[in-house]
Amino acid sequence: MSFLRRLISADKRRGVEGGPAKQHVAIIGLDAAGKTTIMKRILRSEYTLSKPTFGVNIEVYRYRTLEFIVWDLGGHAPIRKTLWKKFVTKAQVIVFVVDAADKKRFNLAKDVFYESLENTEPDAPILFLANKSDKEDAASSVEVMEALELQKMTRSDRAFNMFRCSALTGEGLFNAWDWLVDVVAKDKHVPTWHVKIFSAVAFDSNGKELDQAIFGNPTQQAKVATAYRESIKETERFAKQMRDYTEAVTVLEIMEDYQLVITKNKLFVIGILIDVNDPVSRVLTIASRIFDAIEMDYLKGITVSLEKVISNYFPLDAIS
User: Where do the domains of the chain lie?
Assistant: First the structure.
């Protein structure tokens, strides 16, 4: 099961009496912007492109202390003029997706956004996603912000932010969603900085395992053993699937209690097993530092030690 996928029927996992608070999210944007691919990437960890949506896709999932009902609205003109207002008016959160490589339609995207803005709740936070940033001709963040005239908006009126991302590789998506969840949840009990690292595994870009590490005392290690083995298999599978990409990231749910964050650069693929409620964006920062730390040893032919790197650089995150 993927990142963010928390089914309503899992009553045994409800952390508060009465269940988690529900949030209705409308994902909008022009046709072919990548809305459905983004939704599938986050909810199901699917790496393939999706066909155009003619109508509405509805998904329900749980993440941290929130339950999300996501409306993925098709971006073709007839749908924008008939369905968008109905759903956008009811949405508590808006996600607006722009194809960063489709510069010819930036003006249309801007007009469509501001038309939709008139129908939103005045305090509904907005997450802008500049998708397809992995393409060479993709616009920069500044170019997208200027094209959408985001200077018209003020954060005193509502929370908003913009992230460059790639639905295909996962880059930027999980940082963006963590920002959105933090804004919506306002939950002081949800960890926002340190995480709980239970284990880690590293492969080279060819899929050869370099090292693995499991943290904690023997009792803790025994408890996480099954998830640890599963994390190694999933990281190896991801390494093979994304071999043609220099950068990629995904997150999987493991045994309901853990998240597996897998990230890839040009040399390595690293899988880090953390608590199911931990913020993914923190782990991506950790993974980036691990990449830097092990690269020199790897290029010199020195044995890579994940336990040493994580314990030295992130002692507050590793389970002890």
Answer: 11-185, 197-313
Residue with structure tokens 């290690």?
A: 221
Q: What's the gap between Cα 224 and its chain centre? A: 24
Topology of domain 11-185, CATH: Rossmann fold (3.40.50)
CATH homologous superfamily, domain 197-313? YNR034W-A-like (3.40.1840.10)
pLDDT tens, residue by residue, 193-214: 678 999 999 999 999 999 999 9
Distance CA 255, CA 270 (A): 19
Q: Smallest Cα–Cα separation from 289: which of 179, 197, 214, 164? A: 197
Phi, psi of 249 (to 5 degrees): -155, 145
Report the predicted TM-score, pTM, of the whole model to 2 decimal places: 0.76
Give the helix ranges, DSSP H, for 3-105.
35-44, 77-82, 84-90
**Angle, CA 101 vertex, CA 3 and CA 124 arms, to 5°:** 50
Count the Cβ atoms, other than its own, within 10 Å of residue 9.
7
Token pair 């072919």 in the structure block, residue? 32
Q: Which of 206, 195, 254 is CA-nearest to residue 228?
A: 254
